[in-house]
Amino acid sequence: MRAFNSLADFSDDEISTLLELASRLDRKPEPQALSGKVLALLFLNPSLRTLASFQAAMLRLGGGSFVISPDMSIHGLETRPGIVMDGAAAEHIAEAVPVIASYGDAIGIRAFAERRSLDADLADIEFMSMIRLIETPYINMESAINHPCQNLADWKTLDDLGVPANSGKFVLSWAYHPMALPLAVPASTLYMAARRGMDVTVLRPEGFALPESVMQSAREAAGASGGSVRETEDRGDAMQGANIIYAKSWSSTVHYGNKLKDHELRRGLEDWCIDEPWFDTAAKDCRFMHCLPVRRGVVVTERILDGPRSVVIHEARNRMLAQMAVLHQMLGPES
Amino acid sequence: MRAFNSLADFSDDEISTLLELASRLDRKPEPQALSGKVLALLFLNPSLRTLASFQAAMLRLGGGSFVISPDMSIHGLETRPGIVMDGAAAEHIAEAVPVIASYGDAIGIRAFAERRSLDADLADIEFMSMIRLIETPYINMESAINHPCQNLADWKTLDDLGVPANSGKFVLSWAYHPMALPLAVPASTLYMAARRGMDVTVLRPEGFALPESVMQSAREAAGASGGSVRETEDRGDAMQGANIIYAKSWSSTVHYGNKLKDHELRRGLEDWCIDEPWFDTAAKDCRFMHCLPVRRGVVVTERILDGPRSVVIHEARNRMLAQMAVLHQMLGPES
Amino acid sequence: MRAFNSLADFSDDEISTLLELASRLDRKPEPQALSGKVLALLFLNPSLRTLASFQAAMLRLGGGSFVISPDMSIHGLETRPGIVMDGAAAEHIAEAVPVIASYGDAIGIRAFAERRSLDADLADIEFMSMIRLIETPYINMESAINHPCQNLADWKTLDDLGVPANSGKFVLSWAYHPMALPLAVPASTLYMAARRGMDVTVLRPEGFALPESVMQSAREAAGASGGSVRETEDRGDAMQGANIIYAKSWSSTVHYGNKLKDHELRRGLEDWCIDEPWFDTAAKDCRFMHCLPVRRGVVVTERILDGPRSVVIHEARNRMLAQMAVLHQMLGPES
Fold it and tell me: Rounded mean pLDDT of B315-326?
């Protein structure tokens, strides 16, 4: 495996193999598998779970990692192409990325959406421009539009919970948040659930529909897997018989990148805070999923988050196991 | 071992075993003992020794660790219970702690006193509320009232120096410092010295007596171990025949949490800076101990700190060895 | 090996051995060589390459490292001797350095020039005062005047490129930069090239001559190795037949430590930005070297940096290999 960028790059068999490997490495540790191997971790944005779980994943396999973030360099890293660097930044990503990659057997990169242009973010311009600088195997640790480690971990969580692939009902619900957040998680989660063969409903208020290209990819994946994809603003309808509600806030796509207009649009949507009444029409054991971090009392109520429906900690732990599987395939004895 | 929170939780035999193991691991390294094992390190407060010595301890045993501090998450971590998170913090400790713990075979947590309420800090409310969120074995890396790794390291230092357990004279002295500092080190150091069977004198100015419950625990420990505990403001009396002076500044307990009143109380106490004349009535080879960091020329003079009485670097190195023993028992082959 | 501070401390044979070892460890990994060994890394200044490459180097040899920088301690580290610490800093380097060193089998220290006094910086006063506090084997990770890891990596790069030792022409060129930068890289690079036996030209504008003692050491090294050292402001003359141009900005030595006067002196020197016309009289395959970080469009043009002349990424990767050789000799099985 030379790249782990999107579930769309892998066959069903390859995904199954990764999921089985993740479970096997949990049951049966391999503390020598990546002996002497190094993972470079480049964070252009803050992180807690990804930072911790990748370091832990390498250690459990007998390897190690190092972390670089822009504040470790002198006055940060310049990302703009073709610039005369007479300002604050003393180093350009054009050197930093290949140098950091050259110290690792693989590199993980996190670079959130810049949210200047929806088309640029959907094409993952910034992340792909960094990838073109290197030949080292790489892992997407969340880019403008992808978060494959989260997707693989969530797929494993659905398997662990025994949620059926075909016929399972998965609701991806927009939730209120004071800020406009990126599309990487909702877009790639939608794809994952559709790809798994589930009946997926995107539940979101007006103005927060996902981009048509994102919906289209998911529909195609569902077509191939025997699942389905639809969208609605009707909460009761969406939640009918649901096995899973996966909550996430995201920015408006009609006013993408416009903080002011996005803010106007989300004003009055504070009741999009997942709470027990949402589950009235759901399956009895319907679970609550979220990639974290989550704002308590804003995105979801405390009683849901601290109650039996929530599987968020289980999900977060699966991040480590999913990444161990990816690293094992990328750097391990049979790689 | 499921928890390392206070020496009070361990029998004399268990403490002896840890001390012997610490020495053995110094003489005879075990670079494979914790192969593939991961220690999660969560620092809610700054650190230098603890940060370095825990990482080094895991590495020497063939394992590894990762470090999380609040500034690594998006806009910090919220700690208040029951809050609607519509402010800056994007993540709550209620998720962060169990998630981080789930990536480790054990977790070390540092959370200093909030100094809002003396009773709350004596009960270690904040630290214990985090511990209740997890099932992972844990290590207290300094809480509001405990610092067991420092205590075990200091006990080892006393052994290394050949200071007799029974009949050894140990002075825990308050020292001047421009700021009101927590009680964790003085309270737990007092307990350690009493538990070791030493004749302990707490030397402090008026207004800086340790809380009665802290004194009472120490008296009980001394009662069982054959030691003794007393307190005084009389420097010459306290230092009479002393083998050890252990210096530490701490906040006033009569104006606990009140910076202004504490400041008034400590004004004029600048001569509580340990210097050679303090040792006039002490045993000839009386040593100076301090947990570090220490303010030169404020808490202690340079000639003491750089002279033959000081064992502070030896003490600091014992932090690593003590923690190796704890980690070996918690995660090692026989754990 | 107890210290890696300057190439001047090593015989030709010892340098050859290090270079061969660096290449061998690249071809034939030794993932168990430093099992259970710990490198302490103390950064008093920012770093990217050094930070990443030392961590990667230890991991590839089966050991590990921990990183300490002043912002991890409470309110930073005090460095001034004999001070009464009643200000912000809560810890002095006099404790911090020996404590950190005591947790490692070796320690790497970075401490840039203070640029208060040229004589003090040429004598490496600050770095040497820290070294005197410890007995642990140490590595200079860039001090006021030395950067031996860069030098060894650059020597290896010259070997890798097949640039002849004797008769090879090496131009060390000053370049424009908005700020006054330290002398460590130009001074130690000059020595390295002279020591390797090359014909070295220092190309710099008026006011930016390197200190006489630096030139003198280089001349002596060239005398012994069969190389030569000269200086000029004439670009065409300097570049005549050159195999390598090594660009670096440095502060004026006539107004050392005086930012204002240095600034006046460098004003109008913006055309000292290495570009293709510089190579008109050079050898056809003349290469561009730089230690990084480099300011694009200021120190060197994009077309050089992104073109076939540039070997800066190769150089940076050699940092890791050179340091693996040093660590292997310092801490390895035969050490």
Answer: 98
Mean per-residue pLDDT, B138-156:
98
Token couple for B263: 């400041």
CA dihedral C11, C13, C18, C20 (to 10 degrees): 160
Is A169:A202 a contact under the CB 8 Å cutoff? no
- A48 lies within 8 A of chain B by CB: yes
Beta-carbon pairs below 8 A across chains A and C: 98
By the 10 Å C-beta count (0-12 exposed, 13-18 middle, 19+ buried), C120 is classed as: middle
Distance of CA A174 to the CA centre of its chain: 15
How many structural domains is chain B composed of?
2
Contact C56 A66 (CB under 8 A): yes
pLDDT tier at A88, thresholds 50, 70, 90: confident
Which pairing describes strands B169-174 and B199-203: parallel, antiparallel, or unpaired? parallel
Q: What is the pLDDT of residue A75?
A: 63
Cross-chain CB nearest to B293 (options C84, C90, C104): C90
Distance from CA of C132 to the nearest CA of A (A): 28
Q: What does the pLDDT look like over B183-215, one tens digit per residue?
A: 999 999 999 999 999 999 999 999 999 999 999
**Hey, is the C-beta of C92 within 8 angstroms of any chain B C-beta?**
yes
Secondary-structure percent of chain B, ordered helix, strand, coil, rounded to 5: 40, 15, 45
Shared domain for A167 and A297, answered yes or no, is yes
Q: Quote the CA–CA distance of B119 and B146 in Å, as a whole number.
A: 14
CA distances A29 to A57, A109, B30, B105, Å, are 11, 26, 20, 12
Per-residue burial over B315-332, b = 16 or more CB atoms within 10 Å of its CB, e = otherwise: bbbbbbbbbbbbbbbbbb
Q: Same domain, yes or no, for B164 and B300?
A: yes
Question: Which phi and psi angles does A289 have, rounded to 5°?
Answer: -120, 150
DSSP bridge partners of B91: B77
B327 and B262 in one domain? no
Work out the mean pLDDT of chain B and round it to a whole number: 95
Kindly provide the ipTM of the predicted complex, given to two decimals. Answer: 0.96
The CATH number of the domain holding residue A246 is 3.40.50.1370
Predicted model pTM: 0.97
Per the structure, the complete domain to which residue A141 belongs is given by 3-147+319-331
A83 C-beta neighbours (distance < 10 Å), count: 16
Which has the closest alpha carbon to B8: B157, B190, B161? Answer: B190
Specify whether A137 is located in the same domain as A239. no
Question: Once rounded to an integer, what is the mean pLDDT over residues B166-177?
Answer: 97
Radius of gyration of chain B from its Cα atoms, rounded to whole angstroms? 20
Judge: A92–C296 Cβ closer than 8 Å, yes or no. yes
pLDDT per residue as tens digits for the range C205-219: 999 999 999 999 999
